Amino acid sequence: MKKTLFALSIFIVNSLYAAPSMEYYKLIVYHFSTTAQEKKLDDFLTNQFIPALHLKGFKQVGVFKPITNDTANDKQLILLINSASLNKLIEPIQWNLKEETSFNDPLYKRYEQILLRAFKDMPLMKVPNDASKKGERIYELRNYESPTEEKYLNKVHMFNEGGEITLFNELQFNAVFYADVLFGSKMPNLMYITSFDNIESRNQHWKAFVESPTWKKLVAMPFYQNNMSALHSQLMRSTPYSDY
Fold this sequence. Notes:
This protein has helices spanning about 1-15, 35-55, 85-90, 150-160, 165-170, 200-210, 215-220; strands spanning about 25-30, 60-65, 75-85, 110-120, 140-145, 175-185, 190-195, 230-240. It is α+β, with helices and mostly antiparallel strands. The protein has one domain: Alpha-Beta Plaits (2-Layer Sandwich), CATH 3.30.70.100. It has an eight-stranded antiparallel β-barrel with strand order 1-3-2-8-5-7-6-4. A hairpin with an 8-residue loop joins strand 2 (about 60-65) and strand 3. The protein is globular, with a radius of gyration of 19 Å. Residues about 15-20 have low confidence and may be disordered.
């Protein structure tokens, strides 16, 4: 137990004082329920929040909507920003903006913020640059929960030293980032986003992954057993006003 707590302490210290080349990310997840809220939220982000982020130096602001929004009661909009500066990333810029809303007509039901730090084997974000495919492109946001901090560190090791990121690269999953969740509602937890030209490409990529001899060997290793307790996946498309 003491060994596990010591390892976790070192991990947290290294996360907070990482070298500038290791990026941080912030996900802002807006929850809403009506088309009227969605329109107001789109207008607020397009006309106020994203221009404010650009002025603050955030050049690549990603904004995504889950494909399941059409049928979900709890609809979501997910905004992603990145920075080498932790202080810059946690500044609540949206607090200084004017939300066109009222008590009886809120802009959203609630929003949550998730702070992340890039994995060492992919220290910088990489966004798709083919604008012609933006309308069809699929993004997949996945998060893996672990039962304990020790098992969580084991899963992170699987991505880095174990070669899971290398396999994703070989199969051209076009990852945007892989990251530790430093602060969020589900801990311990890691998250990553991959991108595909369309839904068929996404399905083909995952078929190749699970059938890969490299993956079969990796997932069967005793060292990496039982390091996940839950997996969540969201398929998303970027909004017209997203930077990618």
